[in-house]
Design a protein that fits this description.
Low-confidence stretches of chain A: none
Order of helices and strands of chain A: HEEEEHEHEHHEEEHEHEEHEE
CATH class of the largest domain in chain A: Alpha Beta
CATH superfamily of the largest domain in chain A: Dihydroxyacetone kinase, domain 1
Radius of gyration of chain A: 19 Å
Shape of chain A: globular
Oligomer: homodimer
Distance between the termini of chain A: 40 Å
């Protein structure tokens, strides 16, 4: 696979330099690999720190800014960041109100954020943690005990970010983040594998004419492989997989997310089918977001995440946000 | 190529249905293929109408909203919309202040917008037109007499949109749009071909290990084909091609644009190299935008567009905009 890179070893550092140049409103510490709100710490405000392997952009660095994350820690491609990054981020964003770690459920991330929490607390920063584990495709996976964390991360970061922006205390921000995760489920499909810079070739083999149902965001295997399906058939399968597990009793937020290489034209068409299925299942949709938000490098495919919301979560979702990857109302 | 679609014939209609569902703030006329600001016509405001073949999303439909386009007319994939769409859009957005057509320089678009202008004027709508032709890669091409219109379209739509939002008269909005086009140049590279739904396979053959320099946004041939280059080498080539033609004497806006399938991680890394070259050439950069804005379906690659700005253009660039694809300050 041809890539728009210099050398594989430097892709993350190069990207951070490019991000710093494009976003003067951010404080990008290239050397230590931490992306910060420029105004951090914000007095009285709970800090929100997330992070994970690179290759899922705009997640997480593209979600740093007023109304969402205080800081993000990018690891190497598809590799957890190290505790030092998280401790540094926590110290930089803590105003005394404490810090919430938002952790996608992958073994490396969980271990490193756990270690970072201990170290940060030793330094006097109060830490809470929420684990995101929304992917219903598989129970355990190559890289996780339990469900993987995928698209719901965006909902958790946005809604908890809005709560923190309002000055809520750490316990409340944590509880809201937990509620969002527990109210969210995702299911993804891959039409092609992705290629990491280090490997330089597809991470798995997906024959022409087949798709993988229930794929993870690193190309982890899903539930099954089938002959290629139409957009409508995929929507039926993915939405039903989510609804079977979520059983929503009220309106939902819908994220129709591209894995990276699927054109927006196709994603919008897929959204039409997702909305059709939700209509048939009598699930009211409060808001819909379509685009490439939680990606898997150059993988073609899409995921559907639904989050059941009450009035309060919906209000927090609608609250202003100003980040590189998600922005409205300010 | 596998695609997330139902049938090739319906991709544009399906996408419009999906867009309508995701964006209640827009008025998407699926049957007549016009995407409108919901509040159009805005009293006293010049209307801005653009359009072109589908497959370049978010351009143009994703740029409809306050501060940018009043309406967009999507054609079939890589095919000009028809005059009826443009006439309908012009009539819908005209408040009496007239309408500016923003036309990318492709033969079909030029002919159809010309015909639409005559028809709309017959119906009493005052029409001005601006042709976008920023791509320095080739003088003529498969689909154009003269240079192709590519990334600068975003600058023209944003800056002229801000001028219209301020209530400037048609002649001034047209003059500003023309100034932006004349101050802008682009150059793109492809690492892979794109596949149209109708063809179902890559539109051209690009061997492993080679890239195409000076590619158009439909996979039209560029200047030359070379063995694969590093991100830094590509930035040197592309930025120099733009600067050789533009010769900026002041600060520029920089758009580092993905062609669709290149991960954001790579685009940010490429931006670091673009900024390096601009620094070496002593070109001050006022603002930088990195992302997938003027795409070519699932093509891998990137383009660089520079627009020299004075204080007034920069102020209009910074003005609030609220569209699906570009949003800040509101």
């Amino acid at each position: 696979m041809k890539m728009l890179i210099n050398v594989a070893e430097n892709v993350v550092a190069d990207a951070l330099r490019g991000m710093a140049a494009a976003h003067p409103e951010l404080n990008v510490d290239v050397e230590n690999r931490v992306i910060l709100r420029r105004d951090a710490p914000v007095a009285g405000k709970v800090g929100l720190v997330s992070g994970g392997g690179s290759g899922h952009e705009p997640l997480h660095g593209g979600f740093v800014g007023p109304g969402m994350l205080s800081a993000a820690c990018p690891g190497e491609v598809f590799t957890s960041p190290v505790p030092d990054q998280m401790v540094r981020a926590a110290a930089a964003v803590d105003s005394g109100a404490g810090v919430l770690f938002i952790v996608k459920n992958y073994t490396g991330d969980v271990l490193n954020f756990d270690m970072a929490a201990e170290l940060a607390e030793d330094e006097g920063v109060r830490i809470a943690k929420v684990l995101v584990n929304d992917d219903v495709a598989v129970t355990d996976s190559l890289y996780t005990a339990g469900r993987r964390g995928t698209g719901a991360t965006l909902f958790v970061e946005k809604i908890a970010g809005a709560a923190a922006e309002e000055g809520r205390p750490l316990e409340q921000v944590e509880a809201i983040a937990r509620q969002v995760n527990e109210s969210s489920r995702s299911f993804g499909v891959a039409l092609s594998a992705c290629s990491t810079p280090a490997k330089g070739s597809p991470t798995f083999d997906l024959p022409p004419g087949e798709l993988e149902l229930g794929i993870g965001i690193h190309g982890e295997p899903g539930r099954e492989r089938r002959p290629m399906m139409t957009s409508g058939e995929i929507a039926d399968f993915a939405v039903d997989a989510v609804l079977d597990d979520l059983n929503p009793t009220g309106p939902v937020l819908a994220l129709v997310n591209g894995m990276g290489a699927t054109p927006l034209l196709e994603l919008y068409g897929f959204n039409a089918e997702v909305q059709r299925v939700l209509g048939e299942r009598r699930v009211p949709v409060a808001r819909t977001l379509v685009g490439n938000y939680v990606t898997s490098l150059d993988m073609a495919g899409a995921s559907v995440t639904l989050c059941q919301v009450d009035e309060e979560l919906l209000r927090l979702w609608d609250a202003p946000v100003s980040t590189a990857g998600l922005r409205w109302g300010m």
